[in-house]
Amino acid sequence: MRYTLRIWRQPGPGSAGRLVPYVIDGVTEDMSFLEMLDVLNERLTAEGAEPVAFDHDCREGICGACGMMINGVAHGPERATTTCQLHMRHFDPNVPIVVEPWRARPFPVLKDLVVDRSALDRIIEAGGYITAPTGSAPDAHAVGVPKADADAAFEAAACIGCGACVAACPNGSASLFTAAKVTHLGLLPQGQAERDTRAVDMLAAQDALGFGGCSLTGECTAACPKEIPLEAIARLNRDVLRASVSARRRKVSK
């Protein structure tokens, strides 16, 4: 099959970028989107042209490195699917495919489709650590966790930090990412000691890094390849409110 692509090309962070058209032949419906870009890059390299730079690693939907906007949709048209797991059978060969990098102020473009997503790492760093006793591992049943809490914690922990929620949000908010990282610990016994400070510090780091505010439009959950629910943001807001009330009580008691 033959596809027409319009790919964002940008030499570097301070350079102007533009959409460059390409026509690629020999694409099969079973190719992943990244395999299709590999074929294009092989051709460009053979022609002595600069290949398209894009992020990738595991190509199994686990690492979250492959994020890009495809026809204006984070990771492309298939729900709960990363770009590396997206196949060309989902695209009409008669319709051009527009490929762009994540668009968010905290995600500066490094080259072509590659953006710097280290701001997400700074949010995680702000969360600090958990307090856990050292020594031999406790028995598996020693600390009881209600099943509903365990299920919700695992659901939030599925976040792969790809940044699709930020790219899809009209405000450029990282609230779904922050909420997932905060609440999966806040729901478990091991995360209780730092629960209040974690929520406050990670939210403060998110705001300081230039991410926008959450207005609960829900675009983040629609774009999330792991389908983290909007309820995670509600848990984050609840923990921040709980922390502020606790701080106020401590202040009054003094």
What keyword list fits this structure?
alpha+beta; elongated; 11% strand; two-stranded antiparallel ribbon; single chain; 254 residues; 5-stranded mixed sheet; 2 domains; Ubiquitin-like (UB roll); Fumarate Reductase Iron-sulfur Protein, Chain B, domain 2
The CATH class name of the largest domain reads: Mainly Alpha
Strand order of the largest sheet: 2-1-5-3-4
Query: Could you give a short account of the major beta sheet?
Result: 5 strands, mixed
By oligomeric state, this entry counts as single chain
Architecture of the largest domain, CATH level 2?
Orthogonal Bundle
The name CATH uses for the topology of the largest domain is Fumarate Reductase Iron-sulfur Protein, Chain B, domain 2
Give the count of structural domains.
Answer: 2
Spatial separation of the terminal alpha carbons: 73 Å
Count of alpha and pi helical runs: 8
- Structural class computed from helices and strand pairing: alpha+beta
Helical residue percent?
25-40%
CATH evolutionary superfamily of the largest domain: Alpha-helical ferredoxin
Instruction: Tell me, rounded to a whole number, the average pLDDT.
Output: 93
Q: Determine Rg (CA atoms, Å).
A: 21 Å
Strand content range = 5-15%
N-to-C order of helices and strands: EEHEEEEEHHHHHHH
Apparent shape: elongated
